[in-house]
Amino acid sequence: MAFEPDYDFWLLDLDGTLVDVEWSYTREVFDRVGDRLGREFTDREADILWNGLTGSRDRQLEEWDVDPREFWDAFHEEEDPLVRAEQTYLHDDAAFVADLDAPVGLVTHCQEFLCEPVLDHVGIRDWFDAQLCCTEETGWKPDPNPVERVITDLGVAHNGHQGVLAGDGANDVGAAWNAGLDAIHVERVGHERRGQCVLGDYRVQSFDDLY
């Protein structure tokens, strides 16, 4: 499918799509969470959960006999917003977002107390006309609800306007399609590490490949 850059609006995921975190930070957080839960997380397990390599993180936790609520409570207790922001870097190919001549929204699973310092640290807060950090109330991608809420906040009519959602995971593609949008999948980790191939309307290894 040839890329059509003339979208009426763009939606983007954050972690793994526009930004990433140094592995040392991820490893340290999982070490502390493991201490709280009395269960060690291997490098592979930490990678799977941090990057959502198998889709639903809650489902993956349940398969490992880890209670998702206990895990996330511990995980958020152990995440330091300022340290995480300092360990976060912006992907070079994400710079195209600043030049988009259309409304741009952010739809992320990153929690607000973490998201805000990250946006400030990497200097991309002004890239977005609307943003939403998913919660139990809004639903989680691939649920289309958080996507549709951002579309509403952007002030673009869903009918008659063509939009696209770009993200690094299957949940992003699913959310796009469930909301009637095109989907761009940017493969940051590689098919071998992911263990599967994620389909999308467009599949790239870098946003530079779109142009």
UniProtKB/TrEMBL annotation:
Keywords: Hydrolase
SUPFAM superfamilies hit by this protein: HAD-like (SSF56784)
InterPro entries associated with the record: HAD-like_hydrolase_sf, HAD-like_sf, HAD_sf
A Pfam family reported for this protein in Swiss-Prot or TrEMBL: Hydrolase
EC numbers on record: 3.-.-.-
One Gene Ontology molecular-function label: hydrolase activity
Top-level taxon in the UniProt lineage: Archaea
Main enzyme class: hydrolase
PANTHER family: PHOSPHOGLYCOLATE PHOSPHATASE
Protein name: HAD family hydrolase
Organism: Haloarchaeobius amylolyticus
